[in-house]
Amino acid sequence: MEEDGVPKLESKVEDPNATPSIKEHLRQLLHSLLANTFQLLRFMEVCPSRVGEKVADVNLIIVNMLYTLNSLRRNQCLQNIMDYINQKVEHRTEYAEKLKGVMRELKTELDSIADEKKK
């Protein structure tokens, strides 16, 4: 995010050693967005000269929310791909087991036919 020239907003946590979850980070960004939107509305009425500053703050919060949501999408996409691959592996394993069963049956039948010809 910083590579793109967008400053990252940090989450407030009680424990300085703990990192907030993405859900908590989004919740804090949403609260900041609501507070800054109300301030923007108040500034539009009371102090129109500071409206541009508040619009920039709201824009920064929204961009941070989008970056955070996009980080979730990558994880979700990866999880979907892993689930799909696991389903395919399971399906092919079941199919291979069925084929082994059919091959065993055929071998038994062929052995019985060979035994009958020997008699």
What order do the helices and strands come in, and which of them pair?
Blueprint: H1 22-46, H2 51-118
Task: Offer a few descriptive terms.
single chain; 119 residues; mainly alpha
Rg is 31 Å
Count the beta strands.
Answer: 0
Number of domains: 1
- Please indicate the percent range of residues in DSSP E strands (runs of 2 or more): under 5%
| Average pLDDT level | 83
Which spans have pLDDT < 50 for at least 5 consecutive residues? Answer: none
Describe the structure.
By secondary structure, the protein is mostly helical. It has one domain (2-118). The protein is 78% helix and 0% strand. It has 2 helices and no strands. Helix 1 (22-46) packs antiparallel against helix 2. The longest helix is centred in the last third of the chain and has 68 residues, at 51-118. The radius of gyration is 31 Å and the shape is rod-shaped. The N and C termini lie far apart (81 Å).
Please sum up the structure shown.
The chain has one domain (2-118). It is built from two helices and no strands. It has helices spanning 22-46, 51-118.
